[in-house]
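Morning!

This is the sequence you dropped in the shared folder:
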Amino acid sequence: MKGANTMDFPVPNVSWEHVSLLRAAGPGALLVWSERHDGIVPVSADAQVGEGCIAHLHGASGVRGDIQRKQQAGAPYLDEDLMVIAAHHDLDPLVRQVSDSGAAENHPDGTDSAVGEELRDRAARLLESWPRLKVLTGMVADLRADLAGHGLHLSGPATIGDDGWRAFIAEEFRTVPDGEHRVRVKVPFAWDGPVQVTVGVAGAFRHEEELRPKWRMNLDVSTAYPGRAGRVVAASAAAAVASMPARF
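The structure's back. Tokens below.
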């Protein structure tokens, strides 16, 4: 599968321009690759709830068109056609990483180009599992849109794996712009079993990315109306976030 996949799709060429555009798109923005168009665009947090898309990169007009058509139709666009490569909040840690390692200083095209190289490596790793990730992504597209409607935005690439015999996809969502409240959702294949939801806050220090749990829930939404299961999960997660005190 790995060999066939890399032959079908060259590694997405993340450039310094993509990095610059992701930074300009602001908190909550994502950098995504379209399988259909083999193009990369940044999308803003507002775009996740249908209020516009920051994607002015030359050569990616097909991706923008697909996103806009899905928005106009009221359909979730962060679906199985798009692979998430990075989020806006990844940039500062990556800049520190390439600076500390000397990659930025030694790179002829500067810091953003060195960051783009790191993201190309990440995209290559994601592409290796893309056939499987694509199937599982289609299962949670509505959930992503439902959570965005509650102010919780997808905050990076998904994790996929197996719990015994059953595949799962796990993703993290954050409030925008501060990212203080976080929700991690783990969905089993075909929603065939409880959905694990962890709700919490950012680490004690600004540089800490690890989620500190405040609520953990197992939601069995697989038995009735599985097509609407995402609404139940999103509403439950939003209620848990709203119940947390302003200070921790």
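Headline: Confidence is low (pLDDT under 50) at residues 1-7, 204-208.

More detail when I'm at my desk.
O.
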